[in-house]
Amino acid sequence: MENKPLKIVYVTPALYMAGGVERVLTLKANYFAEHFGYDITIILTEGKDKPLFYPLSDKISVVNLNIGFEELWTCSFIKKIFVYLRRQRQFKKALTCELMRLRPDITISLLRREINFINDIRDGSHKIGELHVNRANYRNFEANDSNFIKNLFAKFWMYSLVLKLKQLDQFVVLTEEDKKAWAELHNISVIPDPLSFYPTQNSPLKEKRVIAVGRYVYQKGFDLLLQQMKELGIDDNRCHLYGPTTDIQQEYVNSSIFAFSSRFEGFGMVLIEAMACGLPVVSFDCPCGPKDIVKDGEDGLLVKAGNVDALASSLSQLMSDESLRQSMSKNGLKNVQRFRIEQIAEQWRCIFESYNVGAS
Fold first, then answer.
1. Could you tell me the domains of the chain?
2. Residues 3-40: pLDDT tens digits?
3. Using CA atoms in the order 21, 134, 271, 281, what is the torsion angle rounded to 10 degrees?
4. pLDDT at residue 141 is higher than 60
5. What is d(CA 132, CA 149) in angstroms, rounded to the nearest whole number?
């Protein structure tokens, strides 16, 4: 008798937003369902009546528990405590019921609120945790938003988290650099994010245009990239700040250099996207991601994190050296192939099928 398809459940807050985690989860789940024939269910807690942002295979089931943690965004501090505790109890009960109904072979937590109790649910599934930020910036406080009480709470929270991570069958991070940060854990693996698209064309590197891509938040460091704009009198015709685009691939192709100014990352999806479009990159060597992606001097240039002068110097070097741009572009196109979904999916399959589950 043939084996039953592997039954996998993902647990994550929502899929209605255009975020990196949402995009990667959708990409992997679609591939597992379409190419491996896995039985995939995604359990959500938010966005009950909102459409999914990224297209999902019709072979995948979506269950929305409609918990409503997003109410916390508008609560006062005191009210937030009570709302959180009530919602968390509701979540634990609902998720337990759903997993007992589904009886999956593997349950994957994206390390949100369910990590607090998922190991206690006796549904028979192997539990895997999947983290999309680096340890140092998990539950990160923005600049100028930290104090003694918050730091004390953060240390207690991390201690508690590590205990829960040790109970998982497997804990997966995105980079070798971040793996080293979790020295207490021995159940840890590294699987990077996959490329989110495969370009239909590459940049000819003819445009005098440097591009940077990301959300306008402190983490992305665009203030470091553009901090001298006003002082140097650079006009708006030479430096543009755009909103979201539906065709990021074309924006890469219309550029000749990619600048990456993040203060920290979980991985750096835009780096591999830019390289896949043939762009040489100049990047801060921030934690974590760039040193796992960029081969310094071969397909891009890495400079000390936060060193604006070094970033500017490296950008100038690439701007003035066409042969260097061309060689880095060629090397990048070759090196980035290791992030294709086919390669990444096989790494996941090795973990999934190592448990020898799903047999009839």
1. 7-194+340-353 (3.40.50.2000), 210-339 (3.40.50.2000)
2. 789 999 999 999 999 888 999 999 999 999 999 999 99
3. 160
4. no
5. 26
